[in-house]
Amino acid sequence: MIRFGTGILIATAAACAAFGVAACGDSSVGGGGPPVSATGGGGATGTGGSGTGATSTAGGSSNGGSAGATTVSDTCTGACCPTDASCYSTSAGATAPGAACMARIQNTADHMQMRQTWLDILTPAGNVIPLVLGTLNTYTQLPEAACNTPGGGTGYMQAVDLDLTTGISTLGYTKFTTTQTALSDGLCFVDIGMGADTSATSSAGWKDVSDIGSEKNFDFSLPASMMSPSGDYPPGLTPPMPQPWKVAPTKAKRVDTDFNVANDRKALLARLAPTGDLGMAGYTGVFYYDTTTGTSHGYSPVSYQIIYDAPATAGALPTTYIVVPIREAEITYRANDPKAPNCIGKYLPGNADPTTCAEVGMEATKPSWGGIYDTTPGEGDAHVQGYFLITELEQVYSKVLGQTLCVSYPTRQVSQDAGWATDTEARCRKAAAWNPSDAMKGLPKGDWCAASNSMASDACHDSYKSVSFHAFQAFKIKSDHCSPL
User: Fold this and answer.
1) All residues at 6 or more sequence positions from 165 whose CB lies less than 8 Å from its CB, including other chains
2) Is the pLDDT of residue 57 over 90?
């Protein structure tokens, strides 16, 4: 699948993470689940987190762990809470199960289906700018005036299907769809070049071909000879990937005990390698789930973000999209109620404009969503970290920003100051110093090192770290997969 651009949406964000894709049924989701009740956790005054991996907690400085019991309000309160019952899981409206996040279905304790409703990005710097972050948040929303999201774009929909009965969890991005279809039929995970997307024209995978200035149909892919060095990678970590890229949501297997990526990285990669026991079984990630606290911790060596381009005509379906690989994505999230996990985080209507109920902005002090355990403004109860390889970012072009993601992720100004872009040229590969085989001088100075999955050094700076927070609401996810267009 080659993208001939009609207008790229934006540079992508650090939103995505571990978990997987499997044909999980919907039998335990969507009807008659128990009402949301009390949960375990210390709330804003708690003293510990429940995660034990490299992300360590399900939130930030104010999050609570499993220190004690607290009652979680599941009611949407405030003048800007939608009054239309269609915005909630039942006709009870603002007091329906999952009303705190405007859940659309009722999950059960052993099967959770959700879609992302909000994200806040801390790094890389280029994804924090209002144009990028604001647009991504617009595209996580359905265009529903009755639910206070009339400007929703639906082009950036991340979803999770966690099934404890099968021990399989799924995280990926969904096909662009109309609001009515999404509400009635559910969302569908996207395959690209494999699975449901195996037509003669798409089986090769995705390659970015787009116009840039006066250059028509420029091929942004790079040959294998222009990939950054991977000789120091631990076994099982995929080397930098030339396009085309084949994409499917991650398929993650539940493990019995939690892990710490800092200590267990080599063992996890070995199990998930093509020759490892999990890799041979078709798994591309692992997850641990604590049924007592409703906390999940997942890890995947390579995951993919999918962002649909804005359609050429208002109201039309998009015809193109971009794909961005995120490396060693690790996610920790905690459901509001482990007995009825309908929300991860909550809607904050008090932060909306009291006159119009419109979102004020992405300022950290006035976010539209937040957590119930991590109540720090701009953070939440789902936390994701990973990194982006520079040689993979250089193969993806943002037409709105007019630059490759290699240029945009550290910000255009930083790239220009370092000599990797100019006022008229926004492709790292055009810089005189571009020589990815030279790990010290031939690449932009990233802040992360893929080989060690740690802070960059002069000898290894081939990546940009990704850190973000998220909120999710219960939503129907289809058991089948879809082609992207």
Assistant:
1) 28, 110, 111
2) no
At 8-39, the pLDDT tens digits run: 333 333 333 333 333 333 333 544 333 333 22
SS (H, E, C) 350-392: HHECCCCCCECCCCCCCCCEECCCCCCCCCCCEEEEEEEEHHH
| Among candidate residues 473, 484, 481, 476, the one with its CA nearest the CA of residue 140 | 473
Cα 426 from Cα 87, distance rounded (Å): 43
Between CA 474 and CA 467 the distance in angstroms is 23
3-state SS string over 143-167? Answer: CEHHHCECCCCCCCCEEEEEECCCC
Residue carrying the six token digits 């001088």: 441
Helix (H, G, I), strand (E, B) or coil at 130: helix
Local structure of residue 441 (DSSP, 8 states): T
Exposure of 391 in the CB half-sphere (CA atoms within 13 A): 26
Structure token pair of residue 310:
């804005």
The tens digit of pLDDT for each residue in 412-436 reads 999 999 999 999 999 999 999 999 9
* pLDDT tens, position by position, 307-358: 998 887 877 889 889 999 999 999 999 999 999 999 999 999 988 888 888 7
Instruction: Enumerate residues 6+ apart whose C-beta is below 8 A from 405.
Output: 11, 12, 126, 324, 388, 393, 394, 396, 397, 398
Give the pair of three-digit tokens for residue 111: 């099967």
Cβ partners under 8 Å of residue 396, min gap 6: 12, 208, 220, 322, 323, 324, 404, 405
Alpha carbons 22 and 161: distance in angstroms, whole number: 9
Expressed in angstroms, the distance from the first to the final Cα of the chain is: 10
User: φ, ψ for residue 391 (rounded to 5)?
Assistant: -70, -20
Q: Coil, strand or helix: which one is 183?
A: helix
Distance CA 285, CA 279 (A): 9
Q: Closest Cα partner for 485 from 249, 193, 251, 216?
A: 193
Instruction: Give the tokens for residue 236.
Output: 């099982």
Model pLDDT, residue 28: 38
